[in-house]
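Bench notes, afternoon.
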Amino acid sequence: MKIAVISVTENGNKISRRMAAGIGIACDRFAFSKHCDGSAVPFDDMKQMTAKCFGEYDGIIFICACGIAVRMIAPHVVSKLSDPAVVVIDESGKFAISLLSGHIGKANALTEKVAEIIGAEPVITTATDVGGKFSPDSFAAANDLYICEYDIAKEIAAETANGGNVGFYSDTGCLNTPPFCDNKRLGICISSDAAKMPFEHTLHLIPKDIIIGAGCKKGTSAEKFELFLLSQLAENKLDIRRVKALCTIDIKREENAILTFCHNHHIPPQFYSAAELMAVKGQFTSSEFVLKTTGADNICERSAMVMGKSLLVKKQAMNGMTFAAAEAPVKIDFNRRVL
Protein backbone atom coordinates (compact mmCIF):
# COMPACT_ATOMS: atom_id res chain seq x y z
CA MET A 1 0.00 0.00 0.00
CA LYS A 2 1.36 3.41 -1.00
CA ILE A 3 0.07 6.47 0.85
CA ALA A 4 0.07 10.20 0.07
CA VAL A 5 -0.21 12.67 2.96
CA ILE A 6 -1.41 16.18 2.12
CA SER A 7 -1.17 18.95 4.71
CA VAL A 8 -2.01 22.64 4.40
CA THR A 9 -0.82 24.20 7.66
CA GLU A 10 2.40 24.34 9.66
CA ASN A 11 0.99 22.16 12.43
CA GLY A 12 -0.50 19.82 9.86
CA ASN A 13 2.96 19.35 8.38
CA LYS A 14 4.31 18.49 11.85
CA ILE A 15 1.56 15.89 12.31
CA SER A 16 2.33 14.54 8.84
CA ARG A 17 6.01 14.13 9.70
CA ARG A 18 5.26 12.36 13.01
CA MET A 19 2.70 10.06 11.41
CA ALA A 20 4.92 9.12 8.46
CA ALA A 21 7.74 8.16 10.83
CA GLY A 22 5.63 5.48 12.49
CA ILE A 23 3.21 4.26 9.86
CA GLY A 24 5.43 1.51 8.42
CA ILE A 25 3.92 1.90 4.92
CA ALA A 26 5.39 3.55 1.81
CA CYS A 27 4.44 7.17 2.38
CA ASP A 28 5.00 10.39 0.39
CA ARG A 29 4.36 13.70 2.13
CA PHE A 30 3.10 16.85 0.41
CA ALA A 31 2.82 20.22 2.15
CA PHE A 32 1.45 23.62 1.12
CA SER A 33 4.55 25.50 0.00
CA LYS A 34 4.08 28.28 2.56
CA HIS A 35 4.46 25.77 5.39
CA CYS A 36 6.87 23.28 3.79
CA ASP A 37 10.06 22.77 5.80
CA GLY A 38 11.99 20.80 3.18
CA SER A 39 11.01 17.37 4.54
CA ALA A 40 7.96 17.21 2.26
CA VAL A 41 7.23 17.96 -1.38
CA PRO A 42 5.78 21.51 -1.70
CA PHE A 43 2.62 22.34 -3.67
CA ASP A 44 0.60 25.48 -4.38
CA ASP A 45 -2.51 24.09 -6.08
CA MET A 46 -4.39 21.64 -3.86
CA LYS A 47 -6.82 20.63 -6.61
CA GLN A 48 -3.96 19.58 -8.89
CA MET A 49 -2.19 17.84 -6.01
CA THR A 50 -5.32 15.85 -5.14
CA ALA A 51 -5.95 14.87 -8.77
CA LYS A 52 -2.39 13.56 -9.05
CA CYS A 53 -2.56 11.60 -5.80
CA PHE A 54 -6.02 10.16 -6.49
CA GLY A 55 -4.73 8.41 -9.57
CA GLU A 56 -1.31 7.33 -8.27
CA TYR A 57 -1.77 6.25 -4.64
CA ASP A 58 -3.65 3.51 -2.80
CA GLY A 59 -4.56 5.90 -0.02
CA ILE A 60 -4.66 9.65 0.68
CA ILE A 61 -4.50 11.20 4.14
CA PHE A 62 -5.60 14.83 4.30
CA ILE A 63 -4.64 16.92 7.31
CA CYS A 64 -7.22 19.69 7.06
CA ALA A 65 -10.93 20.36 7.53
CA CYS A 66 -13.14 17.47 6.42
CA GLY A 67 -15.12 19.77 4.14
CA ILE A 68 -11.98 20.76 2.24
CA ALA A 69 -11.08 17.11 1.69
CA VAL A 70 -14.60 16.32 0.45
CA ARG A 71 -14.47 19.15 -2.09
CA MET A 72 -11.01 18.12 -3.27
CA ILE A 73 -11.88 14.48 -3.94
CA ALA A 74 -15.45 15.01 -5.21
CA PRO A 75 -14.58 15.29 -8.95
CA HIS A 76 -12.57 12.06 -8.83
CA VAL A 77 -14.79 9.66 -6.87
CA VAL A 78 -15.97 6.79 -9.10
CA SER A 79 -16.51 3.52 -7.24
CA LYS A 80 -15.52 1.78 -4.05
CA LEU A 81 -13.99 -0.89 -6.28
CA SER A 82 -11.32 1.50 -7.55
CA ASP A 83 -11.23 4.62 -5.36
CA PRO A 84 -8.29 4.95 -2.98
CA ALA A 85 -8.71 4.99 0.78
CA VAL A 86 -9.26 8.54 2.03
CA VAL A 87 -8.64 9.53 5.64
CA VAL A 88 -8.98 13.01 7.13
CA ILE A 89 -7.12 14.25 10.21
CA ASP A 90 -8.05 17.59 11.72
CA GLU A 91 -5.38 20.28 12.02
CA SER A 92 -4.98 19.65 15.78
CA GLY A 93 -4.68 15.89 15.41
CA LYS A 94 -7.68 15.14 17.66
CA PHE A 95 -9.67 13.04 15.18
CA ALA A 96 -8.86 10.66 12.32
CA ILE A 97 -11.88 10.13 10.06
CA SER A 98 -12.38 7.30 7.59
CA LEU A 99 -13.96 9.20 4.70
CA LEU A 100 -13.90 6.96 1.61
CA SER A 101 -13.36 3.27 0.74
CA GLY A 102 -13.49 2.07 4.32
CA HIS A 103 -13.50 -1.65 3.62
CA ILE A 104 -12.14 -2.52 0.17
CA GLY A 105 -9.82 0.49 0.03
CA LYS A 106 -8.74 -0.20 3.66
CA ALA A 107 -9.51 3.33 4.90
CA ASN A 108 -10.98 2.02 8.17
CA ALA A 109 -7.82 0.08 9.00
CA LEU A 110 -5.65 3.01 7.92
CA THR A 111 -7.69 5.33 10.14
CA GLU A 112 -7.14 3.12 13.18
CA LYS A 113 -3.43 2.87 12.42
CA VAL A 114 -2.77 6.60 12.06
CA ALA A 115 -4.99 7.40 15.05
CA GLU A 116 -2.86 5.12 17.20
CA ILE A 117 0.35 6.75 15.97
CA ILE A 118 -0.66 10.36 16.65
CA GLY A 119 -2.98 9.73 19.61
CA ALA A 120 -6.17 10.73 17.80
CA GLU A 121 -9.71 9.42 18.15
CA PRO A 122 -10.60 7.17 15.18
CA VAL A 123 -13.96 7.98 13.59
CA ILE A 124 -15.44 5.07 11.60
CA THR A 125 -19.06 5.11 10.48
CA THR A 126 -19.58 1.91 8.44
CA ALA A 127 -22.47 -0.05 9.96
CA THR A 128 -20.75 -3.42 10.37
CA ASP A 129 -17.76 -1.84 12.12
CA VAL A 130 -19.89 0.34 14.40
CA GLY A 131 -21.94 -2.70 15.39
CA GLY A 132 -18.97 -5.06 15.60
CA LYS A 133 -20.49 -7.27 12.88
CA PHE A 134 -18.95 -9.36 10.11
CA SER A 135 -18.09 -7.39 6.96
CA PRO A 136 -17.45 -9.43 3.80
CA ASP A 137 -15.59 -6.48 2.25
CA SER A 138 -13.12 -6.17 5.15
CA PHE A 139 -12.72 -9.95 5.42
CA ALA A 140 -11.94 -10.22 1.70
CA ALA A 141 -9.46 -7.33 1.80
CA ALA A 142 -7.63 -8.79 4.81
CA ASN A 143 -7.33 -12.25 3.25
CA ASP A 144 -6.61 -11.38 -0.40
CA LEU A 145 -9.94 -12.65 -1.70
CA TYR A 146 -11.56 -11.41 -4.90
CA ILE A 147 -15.21 -10.42 -4.45
CA CYS A 148 -17.27 -11.63 -7.40
CA GLU A 149 -20.75 -10.34 -6.56
CA TYR A 150 -20.86 -6.97 -4.83
CA ASP A 151 -24.65 -6.91 -4.72
CA ILE A 152 -24.64 -10.12 -2.65
CA ALA A 153 -21.79 -8.76 -0.50
CA LYS A 154 -24.05 -5.80 0.32
CA GLU A 155 -26.90 -8.18 1.11
CA ILE A 156 -24.71 -10.18 3.50
CA ALA A 157 -23.39 -7.02 5.17
CA ALA A 158 -26.96 -5.80 5.68
CA GLU A 159 -28.00 -9.20 7.06
CA THR A 160 -25.18 -9.32 9.62
CA ALA A 161 -25.49 -5.62 10.53
CA ASN A 162 -29.14 -6.27 11.44
CA GLY A 163 -28.27 -9.23 13.66
CA GLY A 164 -28.85 -12.00 11.11
CA ASN A 165 -26.51 -14.78 10.01
CA VAL A 166 -25.49 -16.47 6.75
CA GLY A 167 -24.18 -19.78 5.48
CA PHE A 168 -20.53 -20.55 4.82
CA TYR A 169 -18.57 -22.95 2.58
CA SER A 170 -14.83 -23.10 1.87
CA ASP A 171 -12.56 -25.32 -0.21
CA THR A 172 -9.67 -24.45 2.06
CA GLY A 173 -9.24 -24.59 5.81
CA CYS A 174 -9.89 -21.37 7.74
CA LEU A 175 -8.67 -20.17 11.11
CA ASN A 176 -10.91 -18.58 13.75
CA THR A 177 -14.10 -19.24 11.76
CA PRO A 178 -17.10 -17.60 13.48
CA PRO A 179 -20.35 -19.51 14.06
CA PHE A 180 -22.13 -19.27 10.71
CA CYS A 181 -25.56 -20.82 10.36
CA ASP A 182 -27.27 -23.37 8.11
CA ASN A 183 -28.67 -20.70 5.80
CA LYS A 184 -29.48 -22.26 2.43
CA ARG A 185 -30.65 -18.99 0.90
CA LEU A 186 -27.68 -16.68 1.52
CA GLY A 187 -24.05 -17.50 2.13
CA ILE A 188 -20.34 -17.19 1.39
CA CYS A 189 -18.30 -19.56 -0.78
CA ILE A 190 -14.49 -19.43 -0.73
CA SER A 191 -13.29 -21.31 -3.81
CA SER A 192 -11.34 -20.91 -7.03
CA ASP A 193 -14.40 -22.33 -8.77
CA ALA A 194 -16.89 -19.49 -9.16
CA ALA A 195 -19.43 -21.92 -10.63
CA LYS A 196 -20.08 -23.57 -7.26
CA MET A 197 -23.47 -22.62 -5.83
CA PRO A 198 -23.81 -23.96 -2.29
CA PHE A 199 -26.47 -21.30 -1.56
CA GLU A 200 -29.38 -19.81 -3.47
CA HIS A 201 -27.60 -16.44 -3.27
CA THR A 202 -23.89 -17.21 -3.17
CA LEU A 203 -21.13 -14.67 -2.59
CA HIS A 204 -18.06 -16.12 -4.31
CA LEU A 205 -14.73 -15.11 -2.80
CA ILE A 206 -11.82 -16.26 -4.95
CA PRO A 207 -8.44 -16.70 -3.23
CA LYS A 208 -5.69 -14.71 -4.92
CA ASP A 209 -3.15 -17.52 -5.17
CA ILE A 210 -1.48 -16.98 -8.55
CA ILE A 211 1.81 -15.11 -8.90
CA ILE A 212 2.75 -13.91 -12.37
CA GLY A 213 6.44 -13.64 -13.16
CA ALA A 214 7.02 -11.55 -16.27
CA GLY A 215 9.50 -9.51 -18.25
CA CYS A 216 9.74 -7.58 -21.48
CA LYS A 217 12.15 -5.60 -23.62
CA LYS A 218 12.44 -1.91 -22.89
CA GLY A 219 9.74 0.06 -24.71
CA THR A 220 7.46 -2.92 -25.34
CA SER A 221 3.96 -1.84 -26.35
CA ALA A 222 1.54 -1.91 -23.42
CA GLU A 223 -1.16 -3.34 -25.69
CA LYS A 224 1.05 -6.19 -26.92
CA PHE A 225 2.23 -6.98 -23.39
CA GLU A 226 -1.32 -7.11 -22.06
CA LEU A 227 -2.48 -9.33 -24.91
CA PHE A 228 0.46 -11.67 -24.31
CA LEU A 229 -0.20 -12.02 -20.57
CA LEU A 230 -3.95 -12.46 -20.99
CA SER A 231 -3.44 -15.11 -23.66
CA GLN A 232 -1.01 -16.98 -21.40
CA LEU A 233 -3.48 -16.92 -18.52
CA ALA A 234 -6.25 -18.17 -20.81
CA GLU A 235 -4.13 -20.93 -22.37
CA ASN A 236 -3.21 -22.21 -18.93
CA LYS A 237 -6.76 -21.90 -17.58
CA LEU A 238 -5.74 -19.40 -14.91
CA ASP A 239 -8.47 -16.96 -13.89
CA ILE A 240 -7.06 -13.42 -13.71
CA ARG A 241 -9.20 -12.89 -10.59
CA ARG A 242 -6.81 -15.30 -8.83
CA VAL A 243 -3.73 -13.18 -9.56
CA LYS A 244 -2.16 -11.84 -6.38
CA ALA A 245 0.81 -9.96 -7.88
CA LEU A 246 2.98 -9.47 -10.94
CA CYS A 247 6.66 -9.88 -10.09
CA THR A 248 9.74 -8.91 -12.07
CA ILE A 249 13.27 -7.55 -11.73
CA ASP A 250 13.76 -4.08 -10.26
CA ILE A 251 15.32 -2.62 -13.41
CA LYS A 252 11.80 -2.81 -14.88
CA ARG A 253 10.36 -0.58 -12.15
CA GLU A 254 9.56 2.17 -14.67
CA GLU A 255 8.55 -0.07 -17.59
CA ASN A 256 5.30 1.35 -18.95
CA ALA A 257 3.95 -1.96 -20.28
CA ILE A 258 4.26 -3.59 -16.86
CA LEU A 259 2.87 -0.64 -14.92
CA THR A 260 -0.04 -0.22 -17.34
CA PHE A 261 -1.07 -3.87 -17.09
CA CYS A 262 -0.95 -3.76 -13.30
CA HIS A 263 -2.93 -0.53 -13.20
CA ASN A 264 -5.59 -1.75 -15.63
CA HIS A 265 -6.19 -4.96 -13.70
CA HIS A 266 -5.63 -3.69 -10.13
CA ILE A 267 -2.72 -6.09 -9.65
CA PRO A 268 0.15 -4.88 -7.44
CA PRO A 269 3.60 -5.03 -9.07
CA GLN A 270 6.53 -6.40 -7.05
CA PHE A 271 10.14 -5.72 -7.96
CA TYR A 272 13.20 -7.69 -6.90
CA SER A 273 16.93 -7.20 -7.32
CA ALA A 274 19.03 -9.63 -9.34
CA ALA A 275 20.57 -10.87 -6.09
CA GLU A 276 17.14 -11.59 -4.62
CA LEU A 277 16.11 -13.50 -7.73
CA MET A 278 19.30 -15.54 -7.82
CA ALA A 279 18.77 -16.48 -4.17
CA VAL A 280 15.52 -18.30 -5.03
CA LYS A 281 16.08 -22.05 -4.86
CA GLY A 282 14.87 -24.37 -7.61
CA GLN A 283 15.47 -25.47 -11.19
CA PHE A 284 14.86 -22.68 -13.68
CA THR A 285 15.23 -22.07 -17.41
CA SER A 286 18.64 -20.43 -17.51
CA SER A 287 19.89 -17.88 -20.08
CA GLU A 288 23.48 -16.67 -20.30
CA PHE A 289 22.35 -13.59 -22.22
CA VAL A 290 19.82 -12.63 -19.54
CA LEU A 291 22.45 -13.26 -16.86
CA LYS A 292 24.93 -10.91 -18.56
CA THR A 293 22.40 -8.15 -19.13
CA THR A 294 20.45 -8.27 -15.84
CA GLY A 295 22.55 -10.19 -13.32
CA ALA A 296 19.94 -12.96 -13.04
CA ASP A 297 19.84 -16.02 -15.30
CA ASN A 298 16.02 -16.05 -15.41
CA ILE A 299 13.52 -13.33 -14.67
CA CYS A 300 9.99 -14.68 -15.03
CA GLU A 301 10.28 -18.08 -13.28
CA ARG A 302 12.46 -16.78 -10.44
CA SER A 303 10.23 -13.73 -9.95
CA ALA A 304 7.13 -15.89 -9.70
CA MET A 305 8.78 -18.18 -7.17
CA VAL A 306 9.84 -15.42 -4.78
CA MET A 307 6.24 -15.43 -3.53
CA GLY A 308 5.10 -18.78 -4.94
CA LYS A 309 5.36 -22.27 -3.47
CA SER A 310 5.21 -24.24 -6.74
CA LEU A 311 5.80 -23.34 -10.38
CA LEU A 312 2.63 -23.92 -12.42
CA VAL A 313 3.76 -22.54 -15.79
CA LYS A 314 7.38 -22.54 -16.85
CA LYS A 315 8.89 -19.77 -18.98
CA GLN A 316 6.84 -18.82 -22.04
CA ALA A 317 8.41 -16.32 -24.44
CA MET A 318 7.29 -14.29 -27.44
CA ASN A 319 8.80 -11.23 -29.13
CA GLY A 320 10.93 -10.26 -26.15
CA MET A 321 8.15 -10.86 -23.59
CA THR A 322 8.23 -13.63 -20.98
CA PHE A 323 5.65 -15.19 -18.68
CA ALA A 324 5.65 -17.74 -15.88
CA ALA A 325 3.16 -18.49 -13.12
CA ALA A 326 3.43 -19.93 -9.63
CA GLU A 327 0.90 -20.90 -7.00
CA ALA A 328 1.07 -19.10 -3.66
CA PRO A 329 -0.06 -20.59 -0.34
CA VAL A 330 -3.55 -19.65 0.84
CA LYS A 331 -4.11 -18.92 4.53
CA ILE A 332 -7.56 -17.71 5.53
CA ASP A 333 -7.94 -16.21 9.01
CA PHE A 334 -11.11 -14.47 10.18
CA ASN A 335 -9.08 -12.57 12.80
CA ARG A 336 -6.59 -11.15 10.30
CA ARG A 337 -6.53 -7.38 10.16
CA VAL A 338 -6.38 -5.44 6.90
CA LEU A 339 -3.14 -3.61 7.80
